[in-house]
Amino acid sequence: MHLKLAVGQFLVLLRRRFGGGEPDPELERTTSKQHAALLKYPTMSVIEDVDLHTFGHELPAMFNGMKLVAVAAVAVVLYVVVGWLNLKSPTAPPEISCQDTPLSRYLLKSCPMLTKEYVPPLLWGKSGHIQTVLYGKLGRVSTPTPHGLRKFLPMQDGATATFDLFEAVGKHITGDDITMVICPGIGNHSEQNYIRTFVDYSQRHGYRCAVLNHLGALPNMELTSPRMFTYGCTWEFGAMVGHIRQAFPQTLLVVVGFSLGGNIVCKFLGEKRSNQERVLCCVSVCQGYSALRAQETFLQWDQCRRLYNFVLAGKMKQLILSHRSSLLGTTSSSINDADLNGLYAATSLMQLDDRIMRKFHGYSTLREFYEKESCVRYIHNVSVPLLLVNSADDPLVHQSLLDIPRGLADKMANIMFALTQHGGHMGFFEGDGLFPQPLTWMDKTIVEYANAICQWEKTGVSARQEATR
Q1: What global pTM score does this model have?
Q2: 270: which of 30, 191, 381, 426 fits an S-S bond (Cβ 3.0–4.6 Å)?
Q3: Out of 104, 127, 259, 284, which one is annotated catalytic?
Q4: pLDDT in tens, 134-143
Q5: Average model confidence (pLDDT) across the chain
Q6: 394 is catalytic
Q7: Distance (Å, whole) CA 12 – CA 61
Q8: Is 425 among the catalytic positions?
Q9: InterPro entries, alphabetically (predicted)?
């Protein structure tokens, strides 16, 4: 009802706060007069007594301060958004480190995924954090449902290893019987969306797939011994590979490991020479190579690594507690009540490893556990072609750890290291729009590399030499 009076009082306040200079006596007398009239005659309208033109020449000065504050706030928000989304980072092909050999020349010629630009989705795809979170929450988009058969393998210590076997649904490019033996990431199994997507794609390219279910990771499946999977234990993976070799005597193997699984498969191949029999090649994606060197970086706040550490520790804590009765309920258990109390208080993976995981295998210290369970101790024994893949914006793998695969590729002729600029941890979503494609750069690169190696092994020496000219 008294709109103009309210506007007048508001403008007087703005004038005092932001306008600067001397107050306008005429403006303040007009507003005070109207206010007094309203108090004396509350039902009387004073709108007709107010001339808004009185305030016209004051508006620019009054709002100058507000404009500056608003512009500054918008600038700060845009700066943070652009930095967090990494929008200024250009797309580029992966950085490739390898020796100049006939095999490396052949691979770079036969694998365009390794030489062309990796293009992440618009707006959010250049953020390693968003790629990582989407992988963690969604896994993949439009996830298929491959149908497999679950296998159960009794272990010597009473544990029961399980893996899922998926037969090929297409013919392999070489016509040979090839099996991919796959080790998922931390606490993962064959039912994860990213595993299902990769298996379906590999099946359609003629690969039989065997996917390890980490010990204790499958929902609604109890442990049969007081032990779970750990960072570098290769027992279950070795049992799966042995079963595949026995069940399919003619098959050749392509070994694939994701994240923690990358550490396990590289360690497995390097532990014994016999582990590399009938293995054509190995691909490791987004692993950290050395837990001993990684533990300090996981306590740092840059790239929110400490926060990721806390979240992963919480998930592992839930998984361990879901098997509390199996881990504590036997006399052979290496876990006691004091360890359980330490588990409740743990806020990092290192604390969990120290309180629980190292004791499954009798390590006396966390340092000893990390030293002996990291693949960097064994990878120099691997002689089959080995592709190591990482992303430069992976928030879980510190930049300093990437010196390990880069150095290995410079020294060992069988190793190639591919480093993408974007992709996060196990994301690698791609697409030229806002929405990602169902298949990721990672899925296509692994199958393309495996196809190239299979064809390389299929051809004779003379054909190989011709192919690399």
Answers
A1: 0.82
A2: 381
A3: 259
A4: 888 777 878 8
A5: 86
A6: yes
A7: 12
A8: yes
A9: AB_hydrolase_1, AB_hydrolase_4_sf, AB_hydrolase_fold, ABHD4
